[in-house]
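Inputs:
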Amino acid sequence: MSAMLLQINDLITRFYTEDGVVNAVDDNSLYLNERETLGIVGESGSGKTVTALSVMGLIENPGRIEHGKILFKGQDLLGKSEKQMQEIRGKDIAMVFQDSLSSLNPTLTVGEQIGRVLRFHTKLSSKRIQHRVVELLKQVGIPEPEKRATNYPHEFSGGMRQRALIAMAISCNPALLILDEPTTALDVTIEAQIFELVNRLKEEFGMGTILITHDLAVVANSCNRVIIMYAGRIVEEALVDSLYERPLHPYTRGLLNSILRLEEETQGTLFSIPGEVPDLIDLPDGCNFSPRCRYANERCWQLDPQLEEIAPGRRAACLRVNDIDE
Amino acid sequence: MNDQVLLDVRNLKIYFPAGGDWFAQMFDRRKIKAVDEISFSISRGSTFGLVGESGSGKTTTGRVIARLIDPTSGHVTYNGKDLTGLRGKALKRMRRRIQMIFQDPSSSLNRRKTAGQIVSEPLRIHKLVDRKGLEARLTEVMELAGLSRRFLNRYPHEMSGGQRQRVGIARALAADPEFIICDEPVTALDVSIQAQILNLLMALQDELGLTYLFIAHDLSVVKHVSNNVAVMYLGKIVEIADTHTLFFNPKHPYTRALLAAVPKPDPKAKERKILHGEVPSPIAPPSGCRFHPRCPEMIGEVCRKKEPGEVTLSDGARVSCHLYSG
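Outputs:
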């Protein structure tokens, strides 16, 4: 059993908006082992990104972390000051965001931006930093790295910008890398290139990685373990193989059934989950998924299901988990 | 057979000035060859899929057919009439028959208007109903799109992404069109909502006898909805065939690479094949075959020097590749 790199206990993150209190992350616990890749899958409003931002210490007003512990290498991050978090962010924990254009400063060259991270976190000389920047760009597969370091973000393609962000994220050899929908805006051939790169870097540097995505196919290819989130709650957790073999939660089943498969003939009406994701300000009574669930009964509309261990390493939050096996 | 054709695109070229405004153009007379001589036709009542990565020209093609932009040369014939020459009243009449559904319903719907105002706009412009008939027609199209009339008074921000896209669909249906250009209609939607919208579009096609041009980068979506598919790369159609042939017996190396890059929702699947490099600039496309710098199946000098012509193979697929021209 490898050591635990990150442990989140009973995390509650809420946003106090004009319209009401948004229960973005609603009492969730999860962990990540060293060198492991954990996929967090969910649709919009599931709480997957807010979970990551809570780890990064980037929850801003009107958001508040109201409860819980976030232990990184045994230290509680929630007890750290902003100054201490600044030292951790980018050095020990790094995050790559979905939208590469807005994550980069348009007025600075790509090389300068990566250099700034190194200048902040290391004592390297300017010359060494320049070398390191070029080396990093080369590592992430950017051709002509010396020349490219002097380009501005708009001179890069979307795929190149995402590579540059990954270069920035790995610049200080972080122990934990969080990727938030890193390829959603990219074409499929470029997406394949980015994941090849991420998988290579993971092996080379042995980072623990959290991959946040809505795409179950991407998870199947690059994660060890998966967490499925719905409306602020973790509804299922499993090793990748067992999740795809035998999904337990009706929501996970629905997601897997509604995937279009290229290798199969599909015709006629697609399987679809009826209804819409609930309003996080006004969640339904009982199970959050019950209004859309084909298995829901009286109890599901009243009782809130807890995430329970079904088998070792396997958790699900469903009252009917044992009744619905076809 | 020919009388079945609703839309015919012949030798369509769309070039944009590379410079930008008139001043920049004085110094930069280069052209962006967004679409470079493509031809295809769509039969009445069918769905024609247009796939390709960003920069392939698929969206530009859709815009020319909707007459949102003028082509540089070539013809678009709709129901026997040349659309490219139409002006004034004749154009307005034709526009009623051809409608468009856009990718991002949050930016393609006016946020200051209610769903009712948005959907009634085409009815007003084309003077299709009098004041008394308006209410009934609005209710009718909203119901076709799967929304109750309660939504008529709501603003776009008061709706979910799926509901907004349904309003976009209702607006397209209001003018009682024959032909709808769907430009990435499910790309911005959550996984569980995508299947709902695809089912809706297919049911509407059956019910109203619609013809679709379905533009998307997601191959599995295009495969599910289309009868025929064209694959575009850098302004050219590289392969065009019926859906089954294209997906189960792809001919062009680019089509094959694209299919191999799609991640499979199965942890035991083989690794994705990586197509290296990026799509080159459409200002100066590569010599010979435009795909040759990235092509894993290049046969030699000829690929670099000579642009491949289109060949029709025994199964009806039309391919532009030197592998087949010998």
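Remarks. The first helix of chain B runs from residue 22 to 27. Chain B has a mean pLDDT of 92.
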